[in-house]
């Protein structure tokens, strides 16, 4: 397998989406945008994991390494 392909197309977007979750702590406490940003990041991670599950082969007996980040 080509590791650079998986690194660029799977790991980097996962890291960037997860880094967006840290922006919640930079927003003011009385801002209503904290909840909307948190929900948006959660939905983004969910859609990303669905896409990763679709790309991975169905005959694999082991769990993909990227799935360990979300368990």
Automatic annotation (TrEMBL):
<dbReference type="InterPro" id="IPR006029">
    <property type="entry name" value="Neurotrans-gated_channel_TM"/>
</dbReference>
<dbReference type="Pfam" id="PF02932">
    <property type="entry name" value="Neur_chan_memb"/>
</dbReference>
<dbReference type="GO" id="GO:0005216">
    <property type="term" value="F:monoatomic ion channel activity"/>
</dbReference>
<keyword id="KW-1133">Transmembrane helix</keyword>
<protein>
    <submittedName>
        <fullName>Cholinergic receptor nicotinic alpha 7 subunit</fullName>
    </submittedName>
</protein>
<dbReference type="InterPro" id="IPR006201">
    <property type="entry name" value="Neur_channel"/>
</dbReference>
<feature type="transmembrane region" description="Helical">
    <location>
        <begin position="7"/>
        <end position="29"/>
    </location>
</feature>
<feature type="domain" description="Neurotransmitter-gated ion-channel transmembrane">
    <location>
        <begin position="10"/>
        <end position="67"/>
    </location>
</feature>
<dbReference type="GO" id="GO:0016020">
    <property type="term" value="C:membrane"/>
</dbReference>
<keyword id="KW-0812">Transmembrane</keyword>
<keyword id="KW-0472">Membrane</keyword>
<dbReference type="GO" id="GO:0004888">
    <property type="term" value="F:transmembrane signaling receptor activity"/>
</dbReference>
<dbReference type="InterPro" id="IPR036719">
    <property type="entry name" value="Neuro-gated_channel_TM_sf"/>
</dbReference>
<feature type="transmembrane region" description="Helical">
    <location>
        <begin position="35"/>
        <end position="53"/>
    </location>
</feature>
<dbReference type="InterPro" id="IPR038050">
    <property type="entry name" value="Neuro_actylchol_rec"/>
</dbReference>
